Amino acid sequence: xxxxxxxxxxxxxxxxxxxxxxxxxxxxxxxxxxxxxxxxxxxxxxxxxxxxxxxxxxxxxxxxxxxxxxxxxxxxxxxxxxxxxxxxxxxxxxxxxxxxxxxxxxxxxxxxxxxxxxxxxxxxxxxxxxxxxxxxxxxxxxxxxxxxxxxxxxxxxxxxxxxxxxxxxxxxxxxxxxxxxxxxxxxxxxxxxxxxxxxxxxxxxxxxxxxxxxxxxxxxxxxxxxxxxxxxxxxxxxxxxxxxxxxxxxxxxxxxxxxxxxxxxxxxxxxxxxxxxxxxxxxxxxxxxxxxxxxxxxxxxxxxxxxxxxxxxxxxxxxxxxxxxxxxxxxxxxxxxxxxxxxxxxxxxxxxxxxxxxxxxxxxxxxxxxxxxxxxxxxxxxxxxxxxxxxxxxxxxxxxxxxxxxxxxxxxxxxxxxxxxxxxxxxxxxxxxxxxxxxxxxxxxxxxxxxxxxxxxxxxxxxxxxxxxxxxxxxxxxxxxxxxxxxxxxxxxxxxxxxxxxxxxxxxxxxxxxxxxxxxxxxxxxxxxxxxxxxxxxxxxxxxxxxxxxxxxxxxxxxxxxxxxxxxxxxxxxxxxxxxxxxxxxxxxxxxxxxxxxxxxxxxx
Length: 605
Hints:
Blueprint: H1 2-7, H2 9-16, E1 41-45, E2 48-51, H3 52-68, H4 77-104, H5 110-119, H6 123-126, H7 140-148, H8 153-179, H9 184-195, E3 197-206, H10 214-217, H11 220-229, E4 235-236, E5 239-248, H12 253-271, H13 277-284, E6 295-300, H14 306-314, E7 320-326, E8 329-341, E9 344-354, H15 360-380, H16 382-388, E10 393-399, E11 403-404, E12 408-409, H17 411-419, E13 429-431, E14 434-444, E15 447-448, H18 451-484, H19 489-495, E16 502-503, H20 521-528, E17 539-540, E18 544-554, H21 561-591, E19 594-596
Antiparallel strand pairs: 1-2, 1-19, 3-16, 3-18, 4-15, 5-10, 5-14, 6-9, 7-8, 8-9, 11-12, 13-14, 17-18
Helix pairs in contact: 2-8, 3-4, 3-8, 5-8, 9-21, 11-18, 15-16
């Protein structure tokens, strides 16, 4: 089958790329465009523009479709990030596909799309519970009312994209069937892979247990040879030295004072007005102990932070003290009891913890301040503006990996620094810890990790061949003894105290993780090629050399190839199509120039 596929690669590439057009094609940007590029253009593929409007519409459509299929209609933040990247990849692929579509002469009219939307919605819609009636059937009346409602235009646009893809797929399937041939041996092999299960036992001669003569092996020549073989691993990509100004996303002085005032008022309500300490703890405390009325139980010296512990010990039994400030916030403490324990004085206390919380006004103030800083930095210079706004300037050395030291991942930030001229001031980028503005000040070219620093990482490469060689010698010795014992693996282990017979514990299939072994395809292949109860010769696996006994080999009696034929044909065809499409997309991306300008518009993506 695969040889036939290779002979027809040129045809297949044009045919199959269409079967995988994305079924569905919040603005979180920073606002205005700045920089010497076309305003409103977030990217180009082979010179074809991707506009900001196209990109955001693609995201909105995908988010809308995701909400339709998510219980409660809420899309988690992590999934939203994935959708943004999927939207970007989809737009790139769409341009590549349109170029291919023109060459292949495939055309889908708007009339075809409209008629199919009305009569044959795609499976993801037909199977959506939102369109099912009380009997579980698809509710056509509801569906038609939804697609006729102007308020649902985003959903309808996404639906039309999905239907257009569906129609392309249908038109191409006739050609696909003439190119892809799945032979009977292919089906039989896949049937066995999906249904055959086995259990095995083995003795492993692990390489990690093999001692080597370090002095004899780790020579300067061996280290140099290993270093040269892995030179790409020790080549450091260019870095940018950048200056950063940041405003931390944390409570302000005013927020801290407000928390202190609240703690003081709670103390007055307890001491002067006689309100219940436990009840106020349940209502106001930011500590997990709130559910128990602030009760902490008994604790000895050294168990609490020093300021808290000192106040609780010093207080009289029944006395309410505080607010006591620690790194956690402000505490109101009541010492319930004291006693002498085995390790000294113990205290029983309860507390109310008030943590300073950032208010909405604070966040607005921070955003306004960082944006004002950026505007002034453009006019007065980065360092002058930092001095005016009393903001510290940190110097960072950054790699082009999407990570900002001390702040975390934000691809937009590193994209800006590695694509814009040195000295240009970045937009405001948002992180979990706050907001930052950066500028590149120097580019450091490629460099190599010195061989002395690389040496510890090279030692396993140098040891491994010798360890495998020693493991093979030991496995051959064990196998020779096994032959003398009549092939009894358990008897061999009993006679060799350094080794034991290990079971795979659970049945395994082809291409699966094997319990106690891991993902070792050679192990599975050797095991399944044995007869039940037979023992293998020593063979090399990922962890060392194995001697394996196949304990059982089971094929379900109630499942036949005829039962699964249609499913297997479909799965194999889809696998081939997906692989061809993936390869085609990779080839096309290597051939064309893809330019990404999103870093000029968005604080994250």
